[in-house]
Amino acid sequence: MLKTRLHRTTRHALTLIELLIVITILLALGALIAVNFLGIGDQATIDLQKAQLDRIQSALKVYRANMGAYPTEEEGLTVLWDKSAIEDDSDASRWAGPYLEDPPKDYWGNDIVYQRPSQILDTEDESVYDLVCFGPDGEQDTEDDITNHDRKKNEDGDFETGSEFSGPGDIGGR
Fold it and tell me: Which residues have a Cβ under 8 Å from the Cβ of 171 and sit 6 or more positions away?
């Protein structure tokens, strides 16, 4: 009787096809994770920007309490940290700042725009102002702009009217 030996070959490495499949799976998982986490990071930055606008509004409220009015558009936000920016020298004695420590820049490195009276709400009321951040694209009047009035928008993106708004996001910071 002849005995035949069966030779078993042991594999020690992956074939090229197996390696490509593993790489494809890893890339797909990486893309899925990146897409999910990038959206979270962008929204977190937008939320931080809204909080910064709230902080500026709070500083403007304290300024108004001390000075009797919000800064003029010409004075801008500069009067919140620089007394010499006050246009009327007789008002300078009431300045109790600084109300902000640093000139505010948005989270994308752009200046925050202060407009008084409000151009967004289209009013002549001097107690209503706009704080505008141009958002991630840095361009004015685009969909990603962030303002102190954003909390007053309804689901359609239109501004609500009425007295149901209060707190740091209220009209003009009253």
Answer: 118, 121, 128, 149, 152, 165
- Residue 69 gets the label, from left (phi > 0), alpha (psi -120 to 50) or beta, of beta
Report yes or no on whether pTM surpasses 0.70: no
Residue showing tokens 């020298």? 89
At 53-96, the pLDDT tens digits run 888 899 999 999 988 889 988 888 888 988 888 888 777 888 88
What residues contact 31, with CB distance under 8 A and at least 6 apart?
Answer: none
Domain ranges of the chain: 16-173
Question: For 16-173, CATH number?
Answer: 3.30.700.10
Token pair belonging to 114: 């202060």
* Sheet order of strands, 146-147 included: 113-115, 130-133, 146-147
Percent of the chain with pLDDT over 70: 75
